[in-house]
Amino acid sequence: MSDGPGWPSQRDPAGAATSEPAVEPTHSSTPPRPRRPPPPRIAPEALARQRGSAQEGLAWLGRVPESRGPRLYHALRLVARFVCFGLLRFRIASSGQDLLPTRGGYLLVAAAHRGWMDPLVVMHALPAEPRSWFLGSGPSTFTAAWRERLIHAVGGLLPVWRGGLGVDQHVASARAVVGNGGVFVQMPEGTVSGPPGRIGAFRTGWAVIALRTDAPIVPLAVAGTEELYVGRRMSTRVLAPTSARALAGLPPDAPLPAPGTREELTVARGMSERLAALLGPVVEDLHASTIDPPTHPRRLRRRLTWLLLRPGRLDRDG
Fold first, then answer.
1. Structural domain boundaries of the chain?
2. How far from the centroid of its chain's Cα atoms is residue 78's Cα?
3. Coil, helix or strand for 271?
4. Choosing a second label site near 230 at 20 to 30 A (CA), which of 85, 88, 135, 166?
5. Are 107 and 178 a contacting pair, CB within 8 Å?
6. Residue 221 dihedral angles phi and psi, to the nearest 5°
7. 107 forms bridges with which residues in the sheet?
8. pLDDT in tens, 21-32
9. What are the backbone dihedrals phi and psi of residue 186, each rounded to the nearest 5 degrees, phi first?
10. Residues 170-214: tens digit of each pLDDT
11. Directed axis angle between helix 145-154 and helix 71-81, to 10°?
């Protein structure tokens, strides 16, 4: 689910070309230089033309997102656990589960997003039910027709196709998941490109969805997925639930900005900055625990790292 969603403005919430700038630290004598989220690793518009269509969200799913998965979903979870923990001997340290809401109906916002393993790591941090639904990239996930058919049957993904298709359908997806008692997962960096151990620039689409749904928000820190090999260590930590108003610095009973207004976009930017400030130090702390010494064998590193990723740019030094 790489190259996931994140919308820089109300006018073009699905694209990356007009992303809102994040401020990069510079010397005090130099004005801050804008740092934009990286562009998508692949050309979704071209892929959409090849397909002949690019349905998103509920239009693609064609049903209400279930909070309880079918038998095939649970069977595939068992297979995935056997492969990840048995064959590949991945080790995932998870903490903070006592902070999770006792029921579904919330948004989970996770970072850092660095590879195809991230959705599995997120699912490992959460109970099997209520199930998770990821707002993720259709272009990078539907790399084969059989994968799209399988994901459609099993559920768990509400696809995004960049190109200015708007945010309303993704708000509708979030409302459907939350309203049915599920967990709606977003990764606001919107791409797997980025440095290990640090979060990248957040796009604002997740915050617009949070404002319009007004659902509880659970932050999740993820580390160790930028490269994979046999025996790889990864880590997650659930942070205390929060809300759109809390991240926006508003009183609990304050009205939220009207949809589609400049005020909404301004508030969404502030929410992204505050969430990044919460998750950033935690990701750095977790990353330190996932680093193996240089002498540690890294068997199948290249094959596993790229296993479910469409080949492209990975800016690990930026």
1. 55-293
2. 23
3. helix
4. 135
5. yes
6. -90, 135
7. 184, 217
8. 333 444 445 545
9. -130, 150
10. 999 999 999 999 999 999 998 888 889 999 999 999 999 999 999
11. 120
